[in-house]
Design brief:
Nucleotidyltransferase, domain 5; alpha+beta
């Protein structure tokens, strides 16, 4: 979808409201109150339509991210377009400048949009699947690594983990296909194996590095092949983790460039956004735009 096409489809607020009405209350749909198939007529001066039989009001924005928002629908749609068309994401500051709203409003809009991008309905992965984990933190000093080993922790455990904040990400990528990723509460064998079981079907072949906590996963899957990164071997036959490392590189570089830093609280939401980008990377920005609009009413929000 180009900018010109966006303006042609949604030239004003009324066009956006009519789009939602046609989606959620098309002509011939049953009225929520009387149950009769109705043509819903626009109420002048309000963002509502009335049933032709009982005159009850329906609101196309109810239980969506647009519910009770004082920001115009066209700006909401424009924000979704910018999120979908930007290759590396867009920050709240940049969004505010683009659509002419305050930082506080732009931050809330982005938070609501990202709330639609969860992976709950994503099917498990299959085939050849690469799995890896990474910390969302800066590079540690050697003195910090030695201190962590003295404390009985893994030498790469960042300071975030000491404070009980989850900043480790586990991802699984189908070769040439989709990705599933989420934040892990710790770096232990039960957690890593649990994430693999959550993301990948049992008939799949698993590829990882030589990290010891992945040992034993082959008992639950078709097989498990490992590549020895410590020996500077990155491809050995068909064993390798380049795909999942490419996803991590895209995610980290995008966060570093567009957002600079992500708090532990909102890391899962940002991760969901980049999982969606990866899974639709071959489909173009227009597909992501319509996908977000399609999800607008899948996660009903409270009325207040």
């Amino acid at each position: 979808m180009t900018y010109t096409e966006f303006l042609r489809r949604f030239p004003d607020n009324d066009a956006c409201l009519e789009f939602l009405k046609a989606k959620y209350y098309p002509d011939g749909a049953a009225c929520p109150k009387c149950g009769k198939p109705s043509k819903f007529h626009r109420i002048r001066g309000r963002s509502a339509y009335s049933c032709q039989f009982c005159a009850s009001h329906v609101y196309p924005t109810a239980h969506t991210i647009f519910h009770k928002s004082t920001t115009s629908l066209q700006l909401w749609f424009w924000a979704i377009y910018l999120v979908s068309s930007s290759k590396c994401g867009i920050s709240a500051k940049q969004l505010g400048r683009e659509i002419g709203v305050t930082y506080k409003t732009a931050h809330r809009m982005l938070k609501q949009i990202r709330s639609l991008l969860g992976q709950e309905n994503e099917p498990p992965l299959s085939g050849d699947v690469e799995v890896d984990e990474t910390f969302m933190s800066g590079r540690l000093r050697e003195s910090e690594r030695r201190q962590r080993e003295k404390d009985g922790l893994h030498k790469n455990t960042p300071s975030y983990m000491h404070k009980g904040k989850d900043k480790m990400v586990v991802a699984a990528v189908e070769r040439g296909g989709r990705v599933r990723a989420s934040v892990a509460r710790d770096r232990t064998k039960p957690t890593l194996h649990g994430k693999i079981r959550e993301f990948v079907l049992p008939e799949s072949m698993i590829f990882t590095d030589e990290f010891s906590l992945y040992a034993g996963i082959d008992r639950e899957y078709k097989g498990h092949k490992r590549v020895r990164h410590k020996a500077r071997i990155y491809v050995e036959g068909d064993a390798g983790t380049q795909s999942v490392e490419s996803f991590f590189a895209l995610f980290k570089n995008s966060v570093r460039g567009a957002h600079h830093n992500v708090s532990a609280k909102y890391l899962p939401n940002y991760l969901d956004e980049y999982v969606l980008r990866w899974n639709h990377r071959k489909d173009g920005a227009g597909v992501i735009f319509w996908e977000i609009l399609e999800r607008a009413k899948k996660n009903p929000l409270p009325a207040a």
